[in-house]
Amino acid sequence: AQSVTQPDIHITVSEGASLELRCNYSYGATPYLFWYVQSPGQGLQLLLKYFSGDTLVQGIKGFEAEFKRSQSSFNLRKPSVHWSDAAEYFCAVGHKVGGGADGLTFGKGTHLIIQP
Amino acid sequence: GAVVSQHPSWVICKSGTSVKIECRSLDFQATTMFWYRQFPKQSLMLMATSNEGSKATYEQGVEKDKFLINHASLTLSTLTVTSAHPEDSSFYICSASEVRLNQPQHFGDGTRLSIL
């Protein structure tokens, strides 16, 4: 069965500092990987996705993530965080997308706190 | 593009009543929609996969008679929580995948259900 581990429950970063959120996955085949962000009481917004090709993917809001098959990781990064980045971040794995897609398996999330 | 609308956003009702939640893809067709449940400060757990024109597929441990799912068109899926009890109180989120291949899931803003 597939699984996703986000080792950090909370992370505190100063505004303007760089950020890295960790994600490790367990999956038997080539995974489709996603990062979503959730503000309190809201749904999820897709930050970026990896399906194939270039292992460094660019997303919205200045985020990027790198797929490392050898480490089974898909860490999210941002060079300089803004106070508006404070939110809950979820890493997710799935396989088949589009027609006949399967539901995603989510990590437990990382709560990002931005210090002024 | 790729907007998923979920309604209502918040509902409070008495124990024993049934509640219907709608999930609509506004600007794309979705053969597959998903229903997730999220407990406070926890991750999303897939409840069921809803396929247009066929029966939903429920995850292990999810009562299909409690959580009725109907996906009557390519743009609408509904989740009905029947005879709701306080333990059914939760945040329910739907998502939808476009018919085109390799498209990510897009999430609604969620429905907060409170059963008194």
Structural summary, described in words:
- The complex is a heterodimer of chains A (116) and B (116).
- By secondary structure, chain A is mostly beta strands.
- Chain A is built from no helices and twelve strands.
- In chain A, strands 2, 5, 6, 10, 11 and 12 form a six-stranded mixed β-sheet that branches. A four-stranded antiparallel β-sheet of chain A has the order 3-9-8-7, with no helix packed on it.
- The radius of gyration of chain A is 14 Å and the shape is globular.
- In chain B, the strands form two sheets. In chain B, strands 2, 4, 5, 6, 9, 10 and 11 form a seven-stranded mixed β-sheet that branches. A four-stranded antiparallel β-sheet of chain B has the order 1-3-8-7, with no helix packed on it.
- The relative contact order of chain B is 0.33.
- Chain B is globular.
- Chain B is built from no helices and eleven strands.
- Chain B has 116 residues and is mostly beta strands.
- Chain B is 0% helix and 53% strand.
- Chain B starts with a strand and ends with a strand.
- In chain B, strand 9 and strand 10 form a beta hairpin.
- At the A-B interface, strand 6 and strand 11 of A face strand 4, strand 5, strand 9 and strand 10 of B.
Subunit arrangement of the protein = heterodimer
Number of strands of chain A: 12
Shape of chain B: globular
Low-pLDDT segments of chain A:
none
Helix fraction of chain A? under 10%
Stretches of chain B where pLDDT falls below 50 for ≥5 residues? none
Compute the CA-based radius of gyration of chain B: 13 Å
- Give average pLDDT of chain B, whole number: 90
Shape of chain A: globular
CA radius of gyration of chain A: 14 Å
End-to-end distance of chain A: 41 Å
